[in-house]
Amino acid sequence: MEISQLLKGVLDLAVLAVLRDDDGYGYDVLRRLRVAGLDEVGDASVYGTLRRLYKAGLLTSYVVPSEEGPHRKYYSLNEPGRERLAESARTWRSFASTMDSLVKEAA
Prior knowledge:
This protein has four helices and three strands; from the N terminus they run αβααββα. It is of the alpha+beta class and 107 residues long. The protein has a three-stranded antiparallel sheet. It is globular and about 55 Å long. It starts with a helix and ends with a helix.
């Protein structure tokens, strides 16, 4: 099974989880996902996910000037985003538990 296919279904949840405690800009979010073990996540996927979650009203954004290059657009989790994170986490736990039971029987 390819990790990239699994990532498509859970990238929203992963991005929301990464932003739960600390705001972040695009590359920072990507870096945190990779440090967490999602090495195969693509740059374009993360940037597209951030834009989509923002347009859906689940994130807020603000710009911070940078002395090292272009200004950075930071994203933060707002209340609707926190609610979606909690709901998605419950769904994930239930789904993962079911899959784990099925896979244990097959192994």
